[in-house]
Amino acid sequence: MDITDYLRIVADEIHSVVVATVDEKDLPSTRVIDIMLYDENGLYFLTAKGKVFYKQLMEKSYLSLSAMTSGPDTMSRKAISISGNIRNIGSDRLEEIFKKNAYMNEIYPSKASREALEVFCLYRGQGEYFDLSTKPITRDSFVLGGAPLQKGGFLITEKCSSCGICIEKCPQDCIDQGSPYKINQEHCLHCGNCFDVCPVNAVIKAERI
């Protein structure tokens, strides 16, 4: 999948997501919001100018979101997380948002009442896709708006002695034999078992997990 597939899942398939901002004491502040639109430039949502959420967005211009698809149980769901920069685009696309999300007309029924609203775009950042419905699990990292990609997890270096202990401990069987052994990053849980058990310290942490 590409970036637009991930954004479509967030906006259309999931829609209601948990977002985190930072308050005036630099403490995390979370709430559930609806993602109203998406395109190749990012995700779009709105809020009222009188809300604390609006104040935090204007002061920090950054947020993180987490979203999960519905399903009968955890093992049938997919999760997406994105952290990045947001910008206020005012009333741009407000009419489009109300047309696509008809329920908003019940909350703000008149044009006069909608003057309280402003639209924001999450336009630059990094995200991760995590699918527990596949065996082994599937994960992928992606970027939005040209942000640098910082992949996390663990790597096996040339110090590897090919002893096989890490393979025995890997819950997803995602380590291939070789010289050195190699972790299949798209299936790795980032659990750290390989890092903990390697007798020659051949496994290192990537910068971002």
TrEMBL record:
Q: What is the lineage of its organism?
A: Bacteria, Pseudomonadati, Spirochaetota, Spirochaetia, Spirochaetales
A GO molecular function assigned to this protein is: metal ion binding
| Name of this protein | 4Fe-4S dicluster domain-containing protein
Write out the entry's keywords from A to Z. Answer: 4Fe-4S, Iron, Iron-sulfur, Metal-binding
Q: Which SUPFAM superfamilies match?
A: 4Fe-4S ferredoxins, FMN-binding split barrel
Stored Pfam families: Fer4_7, PNPOx_N
Q: Give the top-rank taxon of the lineage listed in the UniProt record for this protein.
A: Bacteria
Q: Where is the 4Fe-4S ferredoxin-type domain?
A: 151-176, 179-208
Q: Does the keyword Calcium apply?
A: no
Q: Which InterPro entries match?
A: 4Fe4S_Fe-S-bd, 4Fe4S_Fe_S_CS, PSI_iron-sulfur_center, Pyridox_Oxase_N, Split_barrel_FMN-bd
